[in-house]
Design a protein that fits this description.
By secondary structure, the protein is of the alpha/beta class. About 40% of the residues lie in helices and about 20% in strands. It has a domain of about 170 residues: Rossmann fold (3-Layer(aba) Sandwich). A hairpin with a 5-residue loop joins strand 5 and strand 6. It is globular, with a radius of gyration of 25 Å. The N terminus is likely disordered.
């Protein structure tokens, strides 16, 4: 028969053995920790809207990505100039740890192509009915390089002058006329929804339309994917395809208007996740 002292010592020994076994099983290099370390880290998805839109245009895509376990950051693109918008995005990207998939719609493609250059965390670029510029390209020149755009600067746009502190006009904000917005941007989208999008559009400065792209395009070093809306009446699908082939992008075509992420959010989400898995 054990004495109380011996029973206590046996209990302490058993407890110590159990703690030691638990420590070994979770120690660095153990199978449990190795399994956790081997699990791939999902990249953060950064969504960049274009001109005459805002972050809400990504809502349906954002909800799908979040449901699939992705962290999503929808950037508020300033729409002031290609150079300054790219710098703003570059600073935002610097605040995000880990891998990133960077997505740009329309004019947002100009911005991501500049901002991602030299950032090792950006593993993939995704263009959605977007401009994919090379050096010297501008929004205006690319939009008119191939026939098919119904965006007429003389009849489709309303300009609001921008004054400096002295009252001198230094630039202008350009809007798409609400009556023309549904046909240009949102063909096939319910009329009521298109009207809401038209009312909430954010303007682009007029000078940005002719501003040339400078610097090394990010697609020269970062893999890219491109979704082309074949019913796009803003940026002609033919020009989108030329730019995508030039960039060596993986191309997907869908029957969608310029706001394809609103009309076909499932297809856009699928392409983004394909890029994420490939990166």
């Amino acid at each position: 028969m054990r004495t109380p002292k011996k029973s206590l010592l046996a209990a302490v020994a058993a407890l110590t053995t159990g703690v030691l076994a638990l420590s070994i099983s979770t120690a660095p290099g153990s199978s449990a920790q190795t399994l956790q370390q081997d699990q791939p880290v999902k990249p953060t998805i950064v969504l960049v809207h274009g001109a005459w839109a805002d972050g809400s245009s990504w809502s349906a895509v954002t909800s799908r990505l979040q449901s699939d376990g992705y962290t999503v950051n929808v950037e508020a693109n300033p729409l002031r100039s290609v150079a300054s918008d790219a710098q703003y995005l570059r600073d935002l990207l610097a605040s995000i740890p880990g891998p990133i998939v960077l997505v740009g719609h329309s004019y947002g493609g100009m911005v991501i192509t500049n901002a991602a250059t030299g950032n090792p965390n950006v593993r993939a670029l995704v263009y959605v009915d977007a401009f994919i510029p090379d050096q010297g390209d501008s929004v205006g020149a690319l939009a008119s390089a191939q026939p098919g755009s119904a965006l007429d600067p003389n009849s489709s746009i309303t300009a609001v002058p921008i004054h400096d502190a002295n009252g001198t006009v230094i630039n202008a904000d350009v809007y798409i006329k609400p009556a023309q917005f549904p046909a240009l941007f949102a063909g096939g989208i319910p009329v009521e929804q298109a009207a809401v999008l038209a009312a909430g559009q954010r303007p682009l400065t007029a000078s940005t339309l002719g501003e040339p792209f400078t610097g090394v395009p990010a697609w020269k070093t970062i893999p890219s994917w491109d979704l082309i809306g074949t019913a796009d009446k803003v940026l002609p699908p033919a020009e989108q395809e030329i730019m995508a082939h030039r960039a060596g992008a993986h191309i997907v075509k869908v029957n969608a208007p310029h706001l394809s992420m609103v009309a076909k959010p499932g297809a856009v989400t699928e392409l983004i996740e394909t890029a994420a898995h490939s990166s």
